Structures are given as structure tokens and as C-alpha cells.
Amino acid sequence: MRTSPAPPIVKLHDSDIETPAFVYDEAILAEDLDTARAALAPTGARLLLAMKAFSFEPGLRFAVPWLDGLHASSPFEARLARRVTPGGVVHTTMPGLRASDVADLVGTTDRLSFNSLGQWQRFRGEVAGRVSPGLRVNPLLSFVADERYDPSGRNSKLGAPLDQVEAVLRRAPHELDGLQGLLVHNNCESTCFRELLRVVETLVERLDPLLRRGGGGGPPPPRPSPRRGGLPPPHPPGELVRAADPGAGLFRAGPPPPPPAGALRATAGGPLRLGGRARAV
Question: What is the pLDDT confidence band of residue 11, given thresholds at 50, 70 and 90?
């Protein structure tokens, strides 16, 4: 929840803007962040911002009072995240993770989600006791029509395929000892919470032993509830902690309605007559 007012980014009149420029509307940013907070409130989930969609530092500083933390996708973003939210959670995941990246990230990141089982096996010793390690899982549930942009495709490089994680859990569960969280990011273009509900139900059904371990034992994880927008109900103390990390949905410019938080401003020069039509320059 927002606890203190944030300073304005910059106050500009249209005549003051030197174009081309990408301009964010402070009022719409605040409204969108309020909406995200309200949507998660019934679930008890934490709100993080995916920085790959929005890494404009003054804008991040404006958004921080609404957020529980930031989600970075590179060491550079993680350093920026730590700078703008020294008291918030910094969560990082990146497909191409090198040893030098890990050495950098342990100084800036609270939670590091490995993109594959191979990354986890290679670097688990280096992060033990220094960051909270997690694993990005590809749930193999496709909601994107164009397979070129499908993060859940069979040949996707984004996350450990669910069937592989399930196989390790059955064959050698000790290989997953130390994991403290799961990351799923496979339906960012979705406008239907029932797709998210399918993902959560699938993870609970197929990775239940891992979720029980990650939650510290005790009773099974709460079942998803459509009544709560497709997310599980609030977690009891000592059980699973959930987080959502919207990015483009909050800050990307797009066609109205609703009005986009950001818009590209340009200045048109004198028109040219080409092919019998006037065209701006």
C-alpha cells in the first residue's frame, strides 16, 4: 500500500517538450498502480514491477511507494532496483546467466530465480545462504496464438519445462533441496484470469510435494479460487508467499481505452505533397 507521497516526475506543458520524447502521465501512472494494488489485495500477494517493461529511473522512484519490490532481468537492472528501492525486495531472473553475473547479483538481489535446472545445479552452491533461490518453470500451457512469441512452447528457452521438474521430483527429489520459490511468467498478454487459474491449478497438482517443502511443511497449499480472480486466497503465517510482477500492462503505451500511461510525442514539419496527398515530415 502506498505509504507516502512520491515527488512528481516532471511537470511539463506541451510547448515545453522537446520532441521526439516518450512522455508518461503521472496521474494515469498513479491510477494504474492503485488498480494493481486493489486487484491483489484480496489475495495477500505482493506487488513487484517487472523492470524490463519500465526502467525509467524517475518513473521507478515515483512507483516505489505502491510496490513491495522490483523484478530485474539483468545485473544492471538489479543495481538500479537496489538504488531506487533500498528497502524493497529485488528479484532477478535471466535466461543467459554467467558466473560473473551471479557474483554481481549476490550483492544486489534478494531472490534469484534460475531459468533452468542446469543453472540451478551449476550455481546453487554459490548462492547458498546469500540469496533466496527459486526456479522459473515453464508450465507447458500455451495461451499465445503465435508460437514464435509463446513463452510456454515445448522448445521455449524461458523456464524449466514442467515435465522435467516433475521427473526430477519423482526420481531424485534431493536435487531440488534448497529451492525456496517458483516463478511462472507465461501469459502476460492475457485478459482472462481463468488462464492464470489453470496455471496455478497445474502447478499445485503436479508439483505439490515441492510446494509443500517450499512452504515449510504442514497442510497442503491453498487451492486456487475463481472468486478471487484466479489467485489463491491469502496465505496463513508460515505458508506460501505469493507475488505478482506486472510490467507492460501498467506502463506500455497502447490504444485507448483506457488511456495509456505513456505516449510518444513528436513534432510534424511542413507537409509534402506526394502522390496527390499531403504527408507530414
Answer: low
- Cis check: omega of the bond before 151, within 30 degrees of 0: no
Q: d(Cα 166, Cα 183) in Å, to the nearest integer?
A: 15
Give the whole-angstrom CA distance, residue 80 versus residue 153: 31
The tens digit of pLDDT for each residue in 171-189 reads 999 999 999 989 988 776 6
Global pTM value: 0.78
Instruction: Produce one character per residue of 170-181: b if its CB has 16 or more CB atoms within 10 Å, e if not.
Output: eeeeeebeebbb
Determine the pLDDT at residue 281: 67
Residue from 196, 250, 233, 254 nearest 30 by CA: 250
Q: Which of 122, 100, 94 is nearest to 111 (CA)?
A: 94
CA distance 65 to 74: 23
Q: Where are the beta strands (DSSP E) in the chain?
A: 21-24, 46-50, 69-72, 89-92, 111-114, 132-138, 160-161, 182-183, 243-244, 262-265, 272-274, 277-279
Average pLDDT of the residues in 180-203: 83
Give how far Cα 182 sits from Cα of 1, 54, 145, 276, Å: 24, 23, 25, 59
Q: How many CB atoms lie within 10 A of CB 213?
A: 17
Q: What is the DSSP letter of 131?
A: S
Position of cell 514491477? 49
CB 108 within 8 A of CB 78: yes
66-105 pLDDT, tens digit each = 999 999 999 999 999 999 988 889 999 998 899 999 999 9
Average of per-residue pLDDT values in the chain? 79
